[in-house]
Design goal:
heterodimer; A: 265 residues; alpha/beta; Rossmann fold; six-stranded mixed β-sheet; three-stranded antiparallel β-sheet; 25% strand; B: 250 residues; mainly alpha; 12 helices; 76% helix; globular
Chain lengths: 265, 250
């Protein structure tokens, strides 16, 4: 069976300047003071395949490059090196949501993000009731998103993405929102999509999600895949990695705080 | 994948956000150049009382300028304004830039209808050829704005004060363009410098065909065509180089 997503030797680095310059004024004033750049290698030669109908889990510590990898998979970031070939449309839910315009109501936002995800307007209009029903937001359909709570926005995001999914679903931190009832509904829908043959790429820190929902998993550390195996084995290695990292972090915190660089110039 | 649904949704929602979802709100877009026209006419028509076509020239200049100013401002901020789409899904960024000037194009289209209807009413109906030339010049201005928008929208993500620099340029550009004064009051040797500012050519050529019924020289048209081509080419090149990494700067 041929892979639905092929990732070959993907690398990504961000250039971190010693001094941020975001304006023309800063660039002109700093014309004769060249900056030093430090390279932050986020991904380093990542390769894997996703087969049709497969659920692939991705685990790793914070800052290991999981979210950057998902953005490259979804075509939001270009890789510096390597190649991503996708043979089917991808529906993403990244960083606990999809993009909303706060000045528009739920119906218009669903039309906007649904169109980006490849749904036709006719299909969106036909399925609007189903989407709002899944999000439990029928009563607030014409309320601007700026008045929504973060939970309501996230519920709407899951509802529209679940409705829009064509072939591959990419999820960053699955079901981290909503009450227990909504989480159960999402899990049920997720199982339904997987059973119907949709491929899924799922990033999670939760061992239960990876063990329960995935067919295979990879563990990323230092920008590389360090393990690619069964979900239970990868979960075990991830927990071992965390256990090893805790004493390291404690030692670091005794040395004083360290400021985190931003990933773009 | 067909992007027609996305294009329509972007145009419709931009209109809704800007004009609060009603054509009543759209009246405000027309009110701005009309108010400006009334104010400027009240002052300058005395100064240029000897020119019977001054008012007509003024309104043509103001509406074309208003499109240029509004279109370039919307285009410059377009990628930043749609960050909620660009950072969360694969979205063709060029569609965002192209649709961002849709509101300004709608206002310009309404103006074109108004001005031609007005000319017919006052017995100065432009010939079909003159009206066609005017449409060509207006379309040229749309393409110039598009070229600028492609380049500036991508540059704005790296230079966050570009909108303020452009606001200053718009302020200066209003006086460089012969909107409130006839270009003839300046010595002819300065005209070439005024024509280097693209809106000048569009405004002057539109006035020539609509008010004076004169088609500009071939040299003049070639100059405008070159300005349109240069704007689109530079815009496309800058956009092609910078836009793929737009999401990394948002």
């Amino acid at each position: 069976m041929s892979a639905i997503i092929e990732v070959r030797g993907v690398s990504k680095a961000f250039q971190i300047p010693t001094e941020r310059r975001d304006t023309l004024r800063e660039h002109v004033l700093g014309l004769f003071e060249p900056r030093q750049f430090q390279e932050l290698q986020v991904l380093d030669g990542i390769s894997f395949d996703v087969q049709p109908g497969e659920a692939l889990g991705i685990m790793g510590r914070n800052g290991c490059g999981k979210s950057t990898l998902l953005k490259i998979l979804c075509g939001i970031f270009p890789p510096d090196a390597g190649d991503v070939r996708t043979h089917a449309p991808i529906t993403p839910i990244l960083e606990l949501g999809v993009g909303w315009n706060p000045e528009l109501d739920a119906v218009d936002n669903v039309c906007l993000i649904g169109s980006v995800m490849g749904l036709s307007l006719a299909e969106l209009r036909r399925r609007m009731g189903e989407i709002l029903d899944f999000a439990e937001l029928e009563r607030f359909a014409h309320l601007k998103l700026k008045h929504y709570s973060s939970g309501m926005s996230a519920r709407l995001a899951y509802a529209v993405a679940f409705a829009a999914v064509r072939d591959v679903l990419v999820l960053d931190e699955i079901f981290a929102v909503g009450d227990a009832g909504f989480k159960a509904k999402c899990e049920e829908r997720f199982r339904g999509l997987h059973a119907a043959g949709h491929a899924v790429v799922l990033v999670s820190h939760d061992p239960r999600h990876i063990s329960e929902f995935c067919d295979r998993a990879v563990l990323i550390d230092g920008g590389r895949i360090v393990h690619a195996d069964t979900p239970s084995y990868v979960v075990q290695r991830y927990l071992a990695l965390l256990a090893h990292a805790v004493p390291e972090r404690r030692a670091r915190s005794r040395l004083g705080p360290r400021s985190e660089p931003r990933a773009t110039d | 994948m067909s992007w027609t649904g996305l294009v329509w949704t972007l145009v419709r929602t931009d209109f809704k956000v800007r004009y609060h979802g009603s054509w009543g709100g759209f009246v405000w877009a027309l009110a701005k150049p009309i108010t400006m026209f009334v104010m400027l006419m009240a002052v300058f028509s005395f100064l240029f009382a000897s020119d019977p076509t001054y008012k007509l020239n003024l309104i043509i200049g103001l509406f074309l300028w208003d499109f240029f100013a509004e279109g370039t401002k919307s285009g410059l901020g377009s990628l930043d304004a749609k960050r909620f789409l660009l950072t969360k899904a694969r979205c063709p960024s060029w569609i965002i830039v192209v649709t961002s000037i849709s509101n300004a194009v709608i206002t310009l289209s309404v103006f074109i209808v108004i001005i031609i209807a007005f000319l017919i009413l006052v017995g100065r109906a432009p010939s079909p050829t003159a009206a066609a030339w005017f449409l060509v010049y207006a379309f040229g201005l749309v393409l110039i704005v598009l070229g600028f928008s492609l380049a500036s929208s991508a540059l704005f993500l790296r230079y966050r004060d570009l909108n303020q620099v452009w606001d200053l340029m718009i302020q200066v550009g209003f006086f460089i363009s012969p909107i409130i004064y006839p270009i003839q009051i300046l010595p002819e040797r300065f005209h070439i410098y005024l024509y280097l500012w693209a809106p000048t050519a569009v405004i002057e050529f539109s006035r020539a065909v609509l008010v004076r019924g004169v088609v500009p020289t071939l040299r003049g048209d070639a100059f405008l065509a070159a300005a349109v081509a240069a704007s689109l080419l530079v815009g496309a090149l800058v956009f092609r180089r910078l836009a793929p990494r737009a999401a990394e700067y948002l």
